[in-house]
Amino acid sequence: PPPQHCRWLIQSFSLPTRRGPQTNRRYLIVRNVPSLGCGDELGTLFSSYGPLEECKPMDAEDCEEYTDVFFIKFSQLSNAR
Predict the structure, then answer these.
(1) What is the number of structural domains in the chain?
(2) What would you give as a GO molecular function for this chain, any one (predicted)?
(3) pLDDT score for 21
(4) CA distance 23 to 15
(5) What's the confidence (pLDDT) of residue 33?
(6) Rounded CA gap, 73 and 80, in Å?
(7) Domain contains 35
(8) d(CA 76, CA 64)
(9) Residue ranges of the chain with pLDDT lower than 70?
C-alpha cells in the first residue's frame, strides 16, 4: 500500500471495445500524486500488483497545484482490479 502521507485518488475507467464499454478495465488514473518526480516509484508500487504496459503522466489533465495525474495500464484485467 502507499505510505499514509500519500492520499492518491485512484479511478478505474474503461475504453470502448467491440464487446462493450465495461469489459476492459485495465486502466487506472491516479490523481494527487506529489509533483516531486516520483513517477518511477509509482510505477514500481503498482507493478507489485502485476506487469504494467504503461505508467505515464497525463500532462493535459487538470490537477491541483503541485500535484500530477498518472495514467496506468496493466497487462491483465485482474491486476488492475
Answers:
(1) 1
(2) nucleic acid binding
(3) 53
(4) 9
(5) 82
(6) 8
(7) yes
(8) 30
(9) 1-24, 60-61
Measuring CA to CA, which residue among 70, 76, 73, 81 is closest to residue 34?
A: 70
Length of the chain: 81
Query: For residue 27, what pLDDT is reported?
Result: 83
Question: How far is Cα 47 from Cα 2, in angstroms, rounded to an integer?
Answer: 13
Q: Please tell me the distance from the alpha carbon of residue 9 to that of residue 3, in angstroms, as a whole number.
A: 13
pTM given for the model: 0.70
Q: Which three cell numbers stand for residue 10?
A: 485512484
10 found inside a domain? no
- All cell numbers assigned to 38: 516520483
Local structure of 39: helix, strand or coil: helix
Q: In a 10 Å sphere around its CB, with 0-12 CB exposed, 13-18 middle and 19+ buried, how is residue 1 labelled? A: exposed
Range of the domain at 44: 26-79
